[in-house]
Structure formats: structure tokens, C-alpha cells
Amino acid sequence: MVEENELLTTLKQFTGCDQLARLTRTVLLTEGSRYLAEAAECFWLFDVYASHLSGVDGNKDWFTCLKLTKTNHSASVSIEDVNGRVLAKQKIEYTDFPLTAITLYGCWAGEYWVLMLTSEY
Asked: How far apart are CA 69 and CA 100, in angstroms?
């Protein structure tokens, strides 16, 4: 697993996307989000996001935001719509996620969700 400073430095380099990777049938990852999942060994975070998006109407709530905040070895995750309305919350009892906080975006692309770093939006 990558250290926090190295991870933050590398994540800043992702500012767009040429290739998408499939996470589930209806969820794709950008290059930056895939790098995060692999480098921080946190595919679980994207699974959490995808599982909550399965109940969201993308035509109505086309933009979502996942916010993770870590305290010690636990974390809280919230998913909000474009207006800041909380769509879902989840407590993570234990995590070794290297960052104390991160925000990810999810955008509806007509047939699937694209999960991305904020710098890739």
C-alpha cells in the first residue's frame, strides 16, 4: 500500500480520463479512481459507493458525491446528491485506508455511473 504523501501527490496528476474500467455492470472507474483503488487497496470503497448508487435514479440525481472521513481505524462514508442532500450513510468499523479524508464524484452517463477523483471532473 502506498503512503499518504505519495498517494496524494500522485492523485493530483489525474486531471482527465481516456479509458474507463468496469467495476460492476453499471459502474465504471476512471484512470484516477482505478489507481486509487489499486494503490490504496480500497476496492471496498468503490464497492460501497456502487452498492448505494444501485438505488439512485441517475436521470434524477445525475451527480453524486462520496465523502469519506477516517478517525483512527474506522471511517464514515456519506453519499450526497448535487444539492448536498444525503442519499446514504455507512459506518466502516475498521479500515487501513491511508488518507484521513477523500471526496469522490459519481456521474450518471445515461447507462452507467462513472466514479472519479474530484480532479478528473
From this structure: 6
H-assigned helices in the chain: 4-11, 31-39, 43-53
Cell match 455492470: residue? 25
If one counts the domains in the chain, the total is 1
> Cell numbers at residue 110, please?
445515461
pTM confidence score: 0.95
State the cell numbers at 101: 479524508
Query: For 57-90, what is each residue's pLDDT tens digit?
Result: 888 889 999 999 999 999 999 999 999 999 999 9
Cα-to-chain-centroid distance, residue 34: 10
Q: Residue 92 belongs to what domain range?
A: 25-120
Q: What CATH number should be reported for the domain holding residue 54?
A: 3.10.450.150
For 25, half-sphere exposure in the C-beta direction (CA atoms, 13 angstrom radius) is 1
* Angle subtended by helix axes 43-53 and 31-39, to nearest 10: 130
